[in-house]
Design brief:
Among the domains are: 55 residues; 118 residues, Coagulation Factor XIII, Chain A, domain 1, CATH 2.70.50.60. Helix content is 28%, strand content 33%. It is built from 7 helices and 13 strands. A 5-stranded mixed sheet has the order 2-8-7-4-5, with no helix packed on it. A 5-stranded parallel sheet has the order 9-13-12-10-11. The longest helix is centred in the C-terminal third of the chain and has 25 residues.
Length: 298
């Protein structure tokens, strides 16, 4: 190789490597590869005939389970509404044979008529499906939220329901809901659930007209604190079907659920080993130039 060209080639190679490492850092954040669940038993939906109940009312619980094939001796459990003595006031257990496709089943229960048995507030209804898979027992779980309130009193007030990220995902996929992010614009740009409307909690009181008051509103923030405040604001403004996502987007991401980003990604700096390699190439080029200069004076 021409002695004048060699150092130039080395320097250009180093610059190309540096550029390649910098470009490698410019990736879309929060890319997920969800597991394929089409070949496994899963709970498609868990719901009740309404979300707000009073003492003494009947509750109808609907459960839908998908199975990729016929499966026998599957144990189905539904429980919840923990009473004052720590006992689940709703408790069902049955064995079932699932057929290929969607399997629908229902459960009926009556809420105690005496407040001495249960307190007012938010409660979870839990469902589990246990089945054998080879030598293992696989258990699939789901939750659904309800609210128990006073009946026929002036103090009665509609309130919001707390839901888990798993229940929020089911609602988003199967129901017509409005998804509301009440964080800051910077947080939203960094990562948010696709299809979300952004209204920071500090602005919500003056912007409720942007939301559908007759529909279901699913509210989330980073961890669930600001969304609880926002849910209260919506109730005060006449919204009746408000759902606060417990754990916020942090809990959502911990479950591996997808998010999207609208922020401009910042290129990552090359790693330490890469910097050393580039520095070594530049050192070789510099040493070569020094050697050539010394040789020219002889």
């Amino acid at each position: 190789m021409n002695n004048k060209i060699f150092p130039v080639v080395v320097a250009v190679t180093a610059l190309v490597m540096l550029s390649a490492f910098a470009d490698a850092g410019m990736q879309t954040a929060f890319a997920y590869n969800p597991a394929d669940v089409d070949n496994a038993i899963k709970i498609v939906s868990l719901s009740t005939d309404k979300d707000v109940y009073h003492l003494g009312e009947n509750m109808e619980i609907a459960l839908s389970v998908y199975s990729p094939e016929n499966v026998s001796n599957v144990l189905i459990k539904v429980s919840g509404l923990k009473g004052r003595h720590g006992i689940d006031l709703i408790s069902f257990s049955r064995e079932a044979n699932l057929t290929s496709g969607e399997n629908k089943m229902s459960f009926s229960s009556r809420i105690p008529s005496c407040g001495c048995a249960v307190s007012y507030g938010n409660y979870f209804i839990n469902a589990s499906v246990a089945y054998g898979h080879g030598d293992e027992v696989v258990i699939v779980n789901a939750t659904h939220s309800i609210v128990l309130t006073r009946r026929g009193q002036i103090t009665y007030q509609i309130t919001y329901a707390n839901i888990t990220g798993e229940e929020a995902k089911r609602m988003i996929e199967s129901e017509d809901v409005t998804l509301l992010d009440v964080r800051t614009e910077e947080e939203y740009d960094s990562a948010h659930i696709e299809g979300t409307i952004l209204i920071p909690v500090s602005e919500l009181g003056n912007r409720t007209e942007e939301l559908n008051k007759s529909g279901k509103i699913v509210v989330y923030c980073r961890s669930g604190h600001r969304s609880a405040i926002a849910s209260g604001i919506l109730i005060e403004h006449g919204f009746e079907e408000v759902y606060n996502v417990l754990g916020g987007i942090n809990g959502w991401e911990e479950r591996g659920y997808p998010v999207v980003s609208t922020a401009t990604p910042t290129p990552e700096q090359p790693g330490f080993e890469s910097v050393l390699a580039i520095a070594a190439l530049l050192a070789v080029a510099f040493a070569y130039l020094i050697k050539r200069r010394k040789a020219s004076f002889k």
